[in-house]
Amino acid sequence: MFTLKSPAFSEGGTIPEKYAEKSLISPPLSWSDPPKGAKGFALTMTDPDVPEAFKLPHVFVHWMVYNIPASTTSLPEGCSPRGKGLPAGAKEFNSDYVTFKTPGYGAGSGGPWPPDAAHRHVFTLYALKTDKLDIPAAADVGEFAKAVVPQTIGTTSLIGVYGPAKSKMP
User: How many CA atoms lie within 13 A of 60 on its CB side?
Assistant: First the structure.
């Protein structure tokens, strides 16, 4: 079974502050048993619990990485922002952060930092039937999805929770 894990937090567990708030340190991730025929991977980290005032036409996207080689089975802690430590050929895409149009984990304002309550942060790994996606630098999140979805042959997700210490899940 295609599985995504992190030694930093368990499924549904709390994302450590080290990877949140003003941090630009991406958490370590690893995966196993991708679908047969996977030639590459793409990764997203989204927040489905953003307040209405921040809603976009799509789910709020914190991080996107694509062109991850099929031989890759993990991303080390701190491999982002801006590709420092990503596998050769992998690229980061623009996020929906406050400054927008900035690639990298926590680009713009830091890692997960919900203003209102604890939010789920969903890391989704896409196994792709291609090893290279050609996405223009000026593309938006919707165009990223249009490139990834048709090439997807399997997905796996890992959910971590982060928010103000006294808050509860929405």
Answer: 20
